[in-house]
Specification:
This protein is α/β, with parallel strands linked by helices and 339 residues long. The protein folds into two domains: 206 residues, inorganic pyrophosphatase (n-terminal core); 125 residues, Roll (Diaminopimelate Epimerase, Chain A, domain 1). The strands form two sheets. Strands 3-2-1-4-5-6 form a six-stranded parallel beta sheet, sandwiched between helices. The chain is globular. Guanosine-5'-monophosphate binds next to strand 11 and strand 12.
Length: 339
C-alpha cells in the first residue's frame, strides 16, 4: 500500500485530467468512493470527471458532487472524448472491465494510466498499472480513506468527502454489521464523523426515504412472492417486469429486499430475482461460510463477495427460479451442516 500510494502521489504532483469510473448499477459504495475521491483530487488542483456506466438510485443523488456526474449511457460521445483525453483513470469498486459494460471499450482504448482501488476477489491485474486491492476491506470507500492517509492527504478531509465515504462504508457493511466491519472501520468512521459527516442524517437519507410504492412492493414481495425451502435453509423472492411496473418501480427500489429473506430464522442462503432492463438480475446473500460468489460465478456470469454477490440469468424469471431451486438442492449438504 505505502509504495503504491507513493507512486500515486508522484503521479498526482502535477495537474492532470482525471476520470473516475465505477461499476454498472452503481451502489452506495461505488458512488461514495468515486465522489469522495473526486472531491479530494479537485481540491489538489486536478480536472476530474466521474463517469458511471449507467443511472443509479435516487437516494444517492444528494451526494456532494452528484450534479457533475456523467452517465455513459446516453452521453457516449462526450464521455468518450473526455476519456480519450484523460491522463489518469481511476477504476473504483470493481476488478474486471466487464463490470463497466459499454464504457469498457473507451477505457481500454485510452492511453491514460489506470489506477484500481477495489475490494473484490481476484482482480484482473492487466487492467491497471497501479493496483490497490484489499479483499478484506469492508468497502472501497474505506480504502479511499486509507489511500488518502497513505499519501498523507487527510488534511483535505472535508465534510463533503466525509459524507461520501461514510455512505460507502455504511452501505457496504449493512450499517456496520457485516463481518468485514472491523475496529479499523470504526476508527475511520469516527474520523469521518469528526470531519462533519452527519451520520443520522445520512442514514435517514439512504434508508428512511422510500416512496410509498417501494414499501408496498416490499409488502407484496414478503406476503406473496417469498418461497421458503426450510429443509435446505434457503429462500427465494422473485419479481417480473410486469410486477415492477405495477408498483411504479424506480431504480434502487428493491435494494435490500433480499435481506428480509435472509433475516428469517434458519435461512442461510437468500436469492432475489428480478427482471429489469430486459435482463433477469440476481442478488445472492448468505450467512456464515456459504460462498455465494462461487454460485454467482458458476451459474450466473457474476461474482462479488462471499456473503453478497450478484449475477444475471439468460432465461425467464420462472426458469431462473427452477434453476435456483436445483442449485439449492445441489448444495443441501453445505446449507444444512451445523456450524
Ligand atoms: P447486488 O446484489 O447488491 O446487486 O450486488 C451485490 C454484490 O455482488 C456487489 O457489491 C458486487 O460485488 C457483486 N455483483 C453484483 N452484480 C454482479 C455482476 O453482474 N457481476 C459481478 N462480477 N459481480 C456482481
Ligand atoms: Mn463495494
Amino acid at each position: 500500500m505505502k509504495e503504491t500510494a507513493q507512486a500515486l502521489k508522484n503521479l498526482l504532483s502535477s495537474p492532470k485530467n482525471i476520470v473516475i469510473t465505477t461499476h454498472r448499477g452503481p451502489d452506495g459504495d461505488a458512488m461514495g468512493s468515486s465522489l469522495g475521491l473526486c472531491n479530494l483530487l479537485q481540491q489538489i488542483g486536478h480536472s476530474v470527471k466521474v463517469i458511471t456506466p449507467n443511472e443509479y438510485a435516487d437516494f444517492l443523488h444528494w451526494l456532494p458532487g452528484n450534479e457533475d456526474v456523467i452517465i455513459y449511457e446516453g452521453n457516449e460521445e462526450e464521455a468518450d472524448a473526455i476519456t480519450a483525453n484523460a491522463d489518469l483513470i481511476f477504476l473504483l469498486d470493481f476488478s474486471h472491465l466487464s463490470r463497466i459494460a459499454t464504457f469498457a471499450d473507451a477505457v481500454k482504448k485510452s492511453k491514460a494510466t489506470k489506477v484500481m482501488i477495489d475490494h473484490h476477489q481476484d482482480p484482473d491485474r492487466e487492467i491497471a498499472e497501479l493496483i490497490f486491492s484489499d479483499t478484506t476491506a469492508c468497502s472501497t470507500a474505506q480504502m479511499v480513506y486509507e489511500v488518502m492517509d497513505a499519501m498523507e492527504m487527510t488534511s483535505y478531509l472535508n465534510k463533503e468527502i466525509a459524507e461520501c465515504l461514510y455512505v460507502g462504508i455504511m452501505t457496504d457493511t449493512g450499517s456496520f454489521k457485516y463481518a468485514s466491519t472491523t475496529a479499523k472501520t470504526h476508527h475511520i468512521v469516527a474520523k469521518l464523523i469528526a470531519a462533519g459527516a452527519e451520520n443520522t442524517k445520512i442514514h435517514d437519507l439512504i434508508y428512511d426515504n422510500s416512496s410509498a410504492n417501494r414499501i408496498k412492493l416490499l409488502g407484496y414481495c414478503l406476503n406473496e412472492k417469498l418461497r421458503l425451502y426450510p429443509e435446505n435453509n434457503a429462500a427465494i423472492i422473485s419479481l417480473t417486469a410486469e410486477e415492477l411496473t405495477r408498483f411504479e418501480f424506480k431504480k434502487g427500489d428493491t435494494e435490500g429486499f433480499v435481506n428480509f429473506a435472509l433475516g428469517i430464522k434458519g435461512i442461510k442462503f437468500a436469492v432475489f430475482i428480478a427482471e429489469k432492463d430486459g435482463m433477469v438480475k440476481l442478488s445472492l446473500r448468505s450467512k456464515g461460510d456459504f460462498k455465494v460468489n462461487e454460485i454467482a460465478n458458476k451459474y450466473f456470469k457474476g461474482g462479488g463477495h462471499m456473503n453478497a454477490s450478484g449475477g444475471i440469468s439468460e432465461v425467464s424469471v420462472s426458469e431462473t427460479i427452477t434453476k435456483t431451486e436445483q442449485i439449492i438442492k445441489e448444495y443441501k449438504t453445505e446449507l444444512t451442516k451445523s456450524n
